[in-house]
Specification:
Number of helices: 1
Number of strands: 0
Order of helices and strands: H
Helix content: over 70%
Radius of gyration: 21 Å
Length: 50
């Protein structure tokens, strides 16, 4: 179901690929950062309770 892109098929496909890769990268970095911050907060709370 890919539309006919004519002479720009490579450029458009590359742009879509790069955009998707960047979005996946941003999501992955956000998940990693959220886990790291949650771990740090859990450790801080554990120290405070003692």
């Amino acid at each position: 179901m890919m539309p006919d892109l004519g002479t720009y098929a490579v450029e458009v496909s590359l742009a879509y690929g790069v955009s998707i890769a960047l979005l996946v990268g941003v999501v992955a970095l956000s998940v990693v950062q959220a886990r790291r911050i949650k771990r740090a907060l859990d450790e801080a709370e554990a120290r405070r309770k003692k």
